[in-house]
Amino acid sequence: MKIIPVKVDDKQMESMPFADISFPVDSWDDVFDSFIDETLNCHWHPDFEFGVLMSGSLDYNVGGVHMKMNEGDAIFINSNTMHTAKQAQGSKGAVIKGVGFPTSLFADRPSSTIFKKHFEPVITSNMQGFIIPKGNEYSEEFALNILKANTLNRSEFVYELKCMSIISKLWELTISYINSNDPELLKSKGNQKYEMRAKEILSYIHENFSENITVDKLSKHANISRTECFRSFKQFTNKKPVEYINEYRLYRAAKMLMESGLSITEIALSCGFNTSAYFGKQFKKTYGISPGNYRQAKE
Fold first, then answer.
1. pTM, whole model, 2 decimals?
2. What is the mean pLDDT of residues 222-234?
3. Which helix (H) or strand (E) holds 40?
4. Whole-angstrom distance, CA of residue 45 vs CA of residue 12
5. Confidence class of residue 8 from pLDDT cuts 50, 70 and 90?
6. DSSP readout, 205-266?
7. Rounded to an integer, what distance in angstroms lies between the CA atom of residue 215 and that of residue 233?
8. What pLDDT, on a 0 to 100 scale, did the predictor assign at position 156?
9. 274-294 per-residue burial string, b: 16 or more CB within 10 A, e: under 16
């Protein structure tokens, strides 16, 4: 089976691969059995994201809030919100069908009534995202419209019109769901220091993972104490910094094994491991397979 990493830049900001940049709407299937460690790695993007879980179950972290997502549940993730998901223990075959679009789709006229009344309050609010559980009065319509977006034929002459109709319906459902369940979510954002600190720490790790990184270096970079470093980081990743650093190095090594012709020793050293033997031991402990066999399996 081909194992696929989520494609992000060095700061873990994902760029959605829109098929038509002049009409930036995309739909996709996230097949968690095909992801490295069955995990959608921690990232954020400037796009709104909707999804419905077709099978399996997931442990989601959206903006520092941990949520369980089960088959039939729908999810909304706000623009620029950090999120990660892992196939739940004991679950197999988790698949999400998703659809996303950037704020720019409706912000070409930021003074327009539609943008200011229906989009700006969400973008500038405290809301990171939410899960709509199966059986909720809104979940069936969310799922129906997400699936419609996934099955549209891009070559159809009226594709863009049909797509905009679905996007408008999804946003209508989003606003209606918020107002019906928790209108307080739309209050203006308060202090976002914890999220900003977590992003600063993550960015530093992603840019310097091949170097010797310590908690003291991370704390100094974010201009916070060691205690605050641990607190901010764990809130959004559910991991200790050192634990995450090791996992990220292995993740980058796995990508290099898949995508490069470098030797295992070269990959080990470039990913911050002192020896190929230690790298091999840690890799097998995490992925259950040696680096060499992993490289062969992806072909």
1. 0.73
2. 86
3. strand 39-43
4. 9
5. low
6. HHHHTTS---HHHHHHHHTS-HHHHHHHHHHHHSS-HHHHHHHHHHHHHHHHHHH----HHH
7. 11
8. 93
9. eebeebbebbeebbeeebeeb
